[in-house]
Amino acid sequence: MNTTYMNQTVQMAIDNVKKNGGPFGAIVVDHNGKIIGKGANVVTKTNDPTAHAEIQAIRQACQAKESFQLSDCVLYTSCEPCPMCFGAIYWAKLQKVYYAADQTMAAAGGFDDAYIYEEMQKPSHERQLPFQEIPLEGRNRPFEEWKKHPDKTEY
Ligand SMILES: [Zn+2]
Fold first, then answer.
1. Are 76 and 36 in contact (CB under 8 A)?
2. How far is the centre of ligand 1, averaged over its atoms, from the C-alpha of 90 (Å)?
3. Among residues 54, 80, 133, 145, which one is catalytic?
4. Dist. CA 57 → ligand 1 center (Å)
5. Which alpha helices (H) appear in the chain, and where do they start and end?
6. Beta-carbon neighbours within 5 Å of ion ligand 1
7. DSSP letter string over 112-154?
8. What are the Cα distances from residue 137, in Å, to 92, 124, 134, 143?
9. What is the full per-residue pLDDT of the chain (155 aa) written as tens digits?
10. 154 is catalytic
11. CA–centroid distance, residue 82 to ligand 1 (Å)
């Protein structure tokens, strides 16, 4: 764990508030200890609900590495990741995550994502935002095509 990088994410979060962004900052560091991705929360600035600090940092790091995986990298973030970023971190196959503030601090600051975690555990028909399965004919075709495709890039 690099204290300088950890502190830097918190400072990025503070600076981002002053620039009217959300109070979050994140950094991706490669196996050489070099910063290859940085991000601050720009959801309201860019009208992008997915523009969380971690997502921004992961996108930049993947561009820098020209790869969709960051398996030799670690993520430093000013706050414990939300469910969306949690998923992105797993998809990116990051090695480890260091976070400063925890979920309860984020909730006290007005960023409560506990209800998303609760929603995820409910059966789809009991969620506040309904997810309805449609048993469409041919709905498995995309996966059949994927399995058959000889030159696919697995991930
Ligand atoms: Zn997030």
1. no
2. 13
3. 54
4. 11
5. 3-18, 43-46, 53-65, 83-92, 103-108, 114-121, 141-148
6. 52, 82, 84-85
7. --HHHHHHHHS-GGGSSS-------TTTTHHHHHHHH-TT---
8. 32, 21, 9, 13
9. 999 999 999 999 999 999 999 999 999 999 999 999 999 999 999 999 999 999 999 999 999 999 999 999 999 999 999 999 999 999 999 999 999 999 999 999 999 888 898 899 999 889 999 888 899 999 999 999 999 999 999 88
10. no
11. 4
- Counted residue by residue, the chain has a size of 155
Residue that is written with structure tokens 């399995």 in the block: 147
Q: CA 87, CA 101: separation in Å to the nearest integer?
A: 19
* Type of residue at 74: V
